[in-house]
Predict the structure of INSC protein.
Amino acid sequence: DSSLWRSAHKNRINMAFKGEDHLDSLPLPVQRMHLIQVDSVQRWMEDLKLMTDCECMCILQSKPISTEKDEQNELILSSQYSTCDNLQLLLKRAWIISTELTRIAQKLEKNKWQRVHSMTVRVNCHVRSMINEYNTFNRNSSEEMHQFEKLLIDKCSEFTAFTERCIQTEDEQILKSMKSCVNETLTTVAQYFGQLIELVLTHEAQNLMRQIELSDSVYITESAISSLFSLTQEGAHLCRIIAKEGGVVALFKICRQDCFRCLYPQTLRTLASICCVEEGMHQLEKVDGILCLADILTDNTHSEATHAEAAAVIAQITSPHLTFTQHLSSFLENMEEIVTALVKLCQEASSGEVFLLASAALANITFFDTMACEILLQLNAMKILLAACSDKHIVDTPYSRDQVVTILANMSVLDQCASEIIQGNGVQLLMEMLFERSSSGNSAEVAACERVQQKSAVTLARLSRDPEVADAAVKLSCIPRLIKLCRSPTERNNSDSVLVACLAALRRLAVMSPDGLEDSDFQQLVKPRLVDSFLLCTNMEESFV
């Protein structure tokens, strides 16, 4: 009975919220506990939207529950959501189905036929719900999509019937012979499901492209770009679909129209997301995207937010982690003016976030081409970056310091760099970076701190070939700090890369100032081969051949 079903759920909600009116009179820890309970109920209510239809359909043999007029808005979800919300709902449902199919394969491997059947019924319900929900808010599906919908529904029904026959027999030989057929059907269901989702997402990407390209309305264009950005956050596969459907071309078209200037930051943020995939990079090159980004960065009439987002795109497309940046030939043609604009952005940054994006772009460019380091030296970038590090409101996180020390490490290969470091009190900064520790314990922040320690040691090692830098490092007690980092795993967060860098820096300083080490430190950390000192510091018993 539908009223009983609703009443049961209503009672569960009332029980969860019981005592809420008296929250103010409770001690703070108890208040927090109640707030956690409320948040859990809200989360449960959100999840229920994805599970309700499935539960009802399982119980009532795929017959929908009739609703009263005054409660219709509670159960019919699609009509009250925007396109972006509908897509998110579709993606959540698709994720559930994908997860269930994986679990079915696992249970099938273990011959748990009862579980396989119950999960197959659940997948069947989810597939039907997903298709119904999508068709509710999408009225212009293609014939190809309808064909795949029918194929998937029919195959899911066949799959359910198949597994039902399996639980009705106890003959092991018959089950063994049926298992290959069930596996084959499961593979086909997964294949049809993947093809349908691909079609749906391609269709939605095409709709958003159409809106962006044809609309003169700032409001409609902004809404379409926002939906597109949401899709890019779902992973690389969606970014590839968007790139293939002309997303990069459409977004750069927006960036070349003055009437959409207010949308530049949002548009550039979306471009940065799409350009994490090779297809996006190829499209950027085809539409002279580098030239457009250079124009935006060098145009002083644009807002700082626009410049920062353009820097984010540069940081993305020059990332040393990507293997497909070699084709960016046009970047070299515009590199000098881009680097100049980024240095200026670092110098004038009003917030830590703006500085982080600009410095990240510069750091990546120093990996991208060695000529960038010479340009940075000519622009007095070393002095600007060192000055920024003294402002705790601008360089306020290990992530920002990681970008700065990356630039310093890459510039330190130039002989002229040493005098700049001395003049800007850079050795003191490098010494401070050797003490970098995470305050939150967050894994990403801990990793950033390790990179800061490692790169500061590398920079010291490279710069200490200059006697003046080495002398300054010794006077600032760099040697005792490097020894402690080598000998104490907790100081370097058990990082082997930090250890190797510190050993290299210590050996360079020991050559310039041998009196700064005690004999035991010299005998263990400097005199042996680097690999032997490494093994000693890590307490490893293996020998490297």
User: Anything to note?
Assistant: Residues 24 and 468 are 65 Å apart (CA to CA). The first helix runs from residue 2 to 17. The chain has a mean pLDDT of 82.
